[in-house]
Write a structure and sequence with these properties.
Length: 243
């Protein structure tokens, strides 16, 4: 579903992503970890077609993001780290706008709108201007728009930022519900949060993948005195920080 092959991204002389390769299959939730500036958001933005790779190939559900950007966008749900919303709109208007962008009409539009309002807990704020909503509600509004068109690929950049503990638990439940048949890439700075929701962890440092292991494997290693999952991830990130 998601294929990243030998991808490099440069901003002038700055090398942000350096020959990265990985894949996420249908039915898999992959947690994406790394310090600020490591390259996580850059990779997510390339997958979402917001950025073009300098070299390499990125495909989403079989669509090359460079050659078929519109087709790639149609099969992606993307929650950006800085969640852009039209603040002058009311929440209901924003959801209707997002539905129209994705071509949802009639009964299907009604069904999907009811689904996201229920699962993201938005009923009480539908008539409220987005600018009057809390940070937590804004995250939930952004997530609702990302999953509204029932996409097979979900790209979630810091999705639990601003959510309270009960909302975080509800988010985990939603990810479990959405997992079947979907490829989900979930970026976060919080290892414990990613580990609760993911089947596999990717860690990136200085634009390179420094760890790609399943949670099952990491837990087994931790049980064999290789250190906790956190220790194993930190060791990989620290090793990757060495020039």
């Amino acid at each position: 579903m998601i294929r990243v092959t030998e991808v490099t991204k440069r901003y002038g002389e700055h090398l942000a992503v350096d020959r990265v390769s990985f894949a996420v299959e249908a039915g898999e939730v992959v947690g994406f970890l790394g310090p600020n500036g490591a390259g996580k958001s850059t990779i997510l933005r390339m997958l979402a077609t917001s950025l073009a790779p300098t070299s390499g190939v990125v495909t989403v559900a079989g669509h090359d993001v460079a050659r078929e950007p519109l087709a790639a966008r149609a099969v992606c749900g993307y929650l950006a780290e800085h969640n852009p919303l039209f603040e002058s709109m009311r929440v209901a208007e924003w959801l209707d706008f997002a539905a129209a962008v994705h071509g949802l009409e009639g009964a299907r539009r009604k069904e999907r709108r009811e689904f996201v309002v229920d699962r993201c807990g938005l009923a009480e704020v539908l008539a409220r201007p987005i600018k009057a909503c809390s940070k937590g509600f804004r995250q939930r509004i952004g997530l609702a728009a990302a999953i509204l068109h029932d996409p097979p690929v979900l790209l979630l950049d810091e999705p639990t930022h601003g959510l309270d503990p009960l909302q975080v638990v509800a988010f985990r439940d939603l990810v479990r519900e959405l997992r079947p048949g979907r490829a989900i890439l979930l970026s976060s700075h919080v290892l414990a949060e990613v580990a609760e929701s993911s089947d596999r962890l990717l860690a990136i440092q200085r634009g390179r993948i420094v760890l790609d292991r399943t949670l099952t494997d990491l837990r087994a290693s931790a049980g064999n005195a290789a250190g906790s999952i956190e220790a194993q991830v930190l060791a990989a990130v620290r090793a990757g920080a060495v020039p």
